[in-house]
Amino acid sequence: MAKVAAKTVKNVQIKCMVPAVKATPSPPIGPALGQRGVKAIDFCKQFNERTKDYEPETPIPTIITIKPDRTFTFVTKLPPTTWFLKRAARVEKGASKPGSEIVGKISLKHVYEIALIKQQQDNMRDIGLKGICKSIIATAKSVGIQ
C-alpha cells in the first residue's frame, strides 16, 4: 500500500516598497499578487485606505502575507531612513560617489527628529536614542549628506 504524503502548504510573504495612497494593480504589485491568486485591486484599496494619512508618494515598506486559502494580510512599516534624510536635506537623490561627494546638509536637530520617528519602529524599540542617532548619521554619510 502506497503512502500518500501530506501536502504542506505555507504562507507566502512578499516584501515590496509601495508609494502611500498610490497603490495600483500595475507592476510590481499586480503580477506578484496575481500569480498567487490574490486580487491586486483588493490589496490596493485596503493599502490606500490605511496610508491615507501619509503624504502621497511616500515609500512605505510593506510585507504582504498570502495564506493558502488566497486571503492576505499586510503590515506597513515606517518610510526608510534615507527617504527622511533626503527630504530633510531637500535633495532628490543621494550622491553618486558617497564619501567624496556631498549633496546636502542637515542639522543635528533633523537627526534627532528622524530618530524620534524611527524609535517607534518595532526593530528599534530596544535601542537607545543615541544609538539610533549614530545609525542615522552613518546612513547620511553613505547617502552623501553631511
Automatic annotation (TrEMBL):
It comes from the Eukaryota. This is 2761_t:CDS:1.
